[in-house]
Amino acid sequence: MLVLIKENSHQMSLEGALQVATQIKLKPDSVIGFATGSTPLDMYKELIRMHKDEGLDFSKIVSFNLDEYVGLHPTHPESYHYFMWENLFKHININPTNVHIPMGMADNISEFCNWYEQKINSYGGIDLQILGIGANGHIAFNEPGSSLGSRTRIKTLGQKTRLDNSRFFNEIDEVPQYAITMGVGTIMEAKKLLLLASGLNKADAIKATVEGPIMAKYPATIVQYHRYATIIIDKEAASQLEGEYIDSSL
């Protein structure tokens, strides 16, 4: 596990974009796992800039998103379908047929989750999985207590997660109670992990993830077991760490 500490969230985003771009240049048909939320937004903006200014080519990549709310139509402004197209996909030359995002409106959620797992496997697995982290230590929508061997499934969202995500809605009652999410086991099968975090509100979660014992209470702690996991954080998110790590802002 490699931990890189950057001066601020902007520098974190630039480093994250550089690592994604490096993966695509090394393997133009990479299978990339994408995340949503506020954390990767600036990284996606930098990837768009790289595409427009430097010719970074997304035409052969295959994408799989981590999660999606159950019950939100893909055109809903808070759906993750909408998020990905508005904030990344429509600005780059990705092939729409290569885009895979969980379908929260699926008639049979269980069957869809099985299909999603099979689809990932049909491409040989995910080459690089991008991750954020919740203040309670969740990754994707794997809430505290999730099985560390879990697969893609429907998950009930905790009150803390719904409260954190309510800033994107008019009120907390509008935040869906359920989501489809890749499981912890699914995420850990990716060949490389890239986890981003910034801000003081993520400091405790990062402390547990990097230096705490591995436990289902903090699902993100499982990344300690991954052979090729890179964690990029800003100084605020790193403020509770006690060990010696790479301060790449120097």
Which descriptors apply to this entry?
30% helix, 250 residues, 7 helices, three-stranded antiparallel beta sheet, Rossmann fold
Summarize the structure.
This protein is α/β, with parallel strands linked by helices and 250 residues long.
Molecular structure report:
With 250 residues, the protein is of the alpha/beta class. The protein has one domain: Rossmann fold, CATH 3.40.50.1360. The protein is 30% helix and 18% strand. The chain has seven helices and eleven strands. It has helices at 9-26, 41-54, 80-87, 109-122, 159-165, 184-188, 203-211; strands at residues 2-6, 31-34, 62-65, 67-69, 99-100, 128-131, 153-156, 178-181, 192-197, 229-234, 246-247. The strands form two sheets. An eight-stranded parallel beta sheet has the order 5-3-2-6-9-10-1-11, with helices on one face. Helix 1 (9-26) crosses helix 2. The two termini are 20 Å apart. The model has no long low-confidence stretch (mean pLDDT 95).
Indicate the overall shape.
Answer: globular
CATH architecture title: 3-Layer(aba) Sandwich
**Number of DSSP E strands:** 11
- Largest sheet, if any? 8 strands, parallel
**How would you spell out the order of helices and strands?**
EHEHEEHEHEEHEHEHEE
**How many discrete domains?**
1
Distance between the termini: 20 Å
- How many alpha or pi helices? 7
Low-confidence stretches: none
Average pLDDT for all residues: 95
List the helices and strands and how they pair.
Blueprint: E1 2-6, H1 9-26, E2 31-34, H2 41-54, E3 62-65, E4 67-69, H3 80-87, E5 99-100, H4 109-122, E6 128-131, E7 153-156, H5 159-165, E8 178-181, H6 184-188, E9 192-197, H7 203-211, E10 229-234, E11 246-247
Parallel strand pairs: 1-10, 1-11, 2-3, 2-6, 3-5, 6-9, 9-10
Antiparallel strand pairs: 4-8, 7-8
